[in-house]
């Protein structure tokens, strides 16, 4: 008897990941799971992007039929699109019951998305865990994704409120299903704490970089700029549709961080106007000391 499986049969026996959205992050997830031998089902509203991805990475379109085969579903669209997809597929996920996939997202904000997703999951009986891979580039789109995008990168998990045993089981399940991506470390937090910190570590950096290049002097930077300019302007290049949605959903925390940096910058401005070298030196030394202490903190 011939026990050799055909390629199609071998693929059908592999675990399956479903991916909504094939931008930079969704495309990188697709490539990572494809490289690990998983079957990849995906959907993107851009038909051309989906067609390109199906040439060498995506095996099938993510729909109700392929959803039933998924072990993991990753929502990598904008937050409102993720919720819309969950609402439209909630009944299907309900019918799959305990055999259904774990659903996670990869959005840069968690408050509004997770709270609505937790409610849907509770109502319809599927499992959802918020997730935010701390990786990416200043570029966007499927073409810039890579199979090793997440290697060594941190992953933040945002589970719903559960008892200790159920919480550990969910986190272990998420950790196992995400293993093909080779994340470097996992952190666990709440939606509010995630959004408070991410307003500083990510969104504020994009706002500052984006505002920095609006100086008229930026037009004359060629020949006068080196590493400092490149470091500070790297994330000025962004997707305004995506970032405006993320920032509005995190508006209060981000507005607070902008106020803090405005107040800090004003101290430097006043010291310069007053030709206060001693005061300016103290401000610079204070920032240097804080940065050194942050670098020495245990990870």
Structure summary:
With 299 residues, the chain is of the alpha/beta class.
Provide an overview of this structure.
One of its GO terms (biological process) is tyrosine biosynthetic process. This is Prephenate dehydrogenase. GO terms for molecular function: NAD+ binding; prephenate dehydrogenase (NAD+) activity; prephenate dehydrogenase (NADP+) activity. It is a single chain. With 299 residues, this protein is α/β, with parallel strands linked by helices. It has two domains: 7-189, Rossmann fold (3-Layer(aba) Sandwich); 195-296, 6-phosphogluconate dehydrogenase C-terminal like domain (6-phosphogluconate dehydrogenase C-terminal fold). Helices cover 54% and strands 12% of the residues. It has helices spanning 7-13, 24-35, 47-56, 64-67, 79-96, 111-124, 164-177, 191-212, 227-233, 240-249, 251-273, 277-296; strands at residues 16-20, 39-43, 60-61, 72-75, 102-105, 127-133, 154-158, 185-188. Strands 3-2-1-4-5-6-7-8 form an eight-stranded mixed beta sheet, with helices on both faces. Strand 4 (72-75), helix 5 and strand 5 form a beta-alpha-beta unit. Helix 5 (79-96) runs parallel beside helix 6 (111-124) and helix 8 packs across helix 11.
């Amino acid at each position: 008897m011939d026990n050799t499986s055909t390629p199609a049969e071998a693929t059908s026996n592999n675990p399956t990941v479903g991916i909504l959205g094939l931008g930079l992050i969704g495309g990188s997830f697709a490539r990572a799971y494809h490289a690990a031998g998983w079957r990849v089902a995906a959907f993107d509203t851009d038909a051309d992007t989906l067609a390109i991805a199906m040439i060498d990475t995506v095996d099938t379109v993510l729909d109700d039929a392929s959803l039933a085969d998924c072990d993991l579903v990753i929502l990598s669209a904008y937050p409102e699109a993720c919720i819309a997809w969950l609402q439209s597929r909630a009944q299907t996920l309900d019918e799959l019951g305990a055999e259904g996939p774990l659903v996670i997202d990869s959005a840069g904000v968690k408050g509004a998305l997770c709270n609505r997703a937790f409610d849907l999951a509770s109502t319809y009986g599927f499992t959802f865990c918020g997730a935010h891979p701390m990786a990416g580039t200043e570029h966007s789109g499927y073409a810039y994704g890579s199979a090793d995008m997440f290697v060594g990168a941190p992953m933040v998990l945002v589970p719903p409120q559960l008892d200790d045993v159920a919480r550990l089981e969910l986190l272990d399940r998420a950790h196992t299903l995400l293993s093909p991506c080779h994340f470097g470390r996992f952190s666990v937090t709440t939606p509010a704490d995630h959004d408070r910190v991410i307003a500083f570590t990510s969104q504020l950096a994009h706002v500052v970089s984006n505002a920095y290049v609006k100086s008229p002097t930026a037009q004359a930077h060629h020949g006068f700029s080196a590493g400092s300019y490149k470091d500070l302007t790297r994330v000025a290049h962004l997707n305004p549709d995506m970032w405006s949605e993320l920032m509005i959903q995190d508006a209060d925390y981000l507005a607070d961080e902008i106020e803090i940096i405005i107040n800090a910058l004003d101290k430097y401005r006043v010291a310069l106007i007053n030709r206060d070298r001693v005061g300016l030196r103290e401000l610079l030394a204070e920032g240097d000391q804080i940065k050194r202490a942050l670098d020495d903190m245990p990870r």
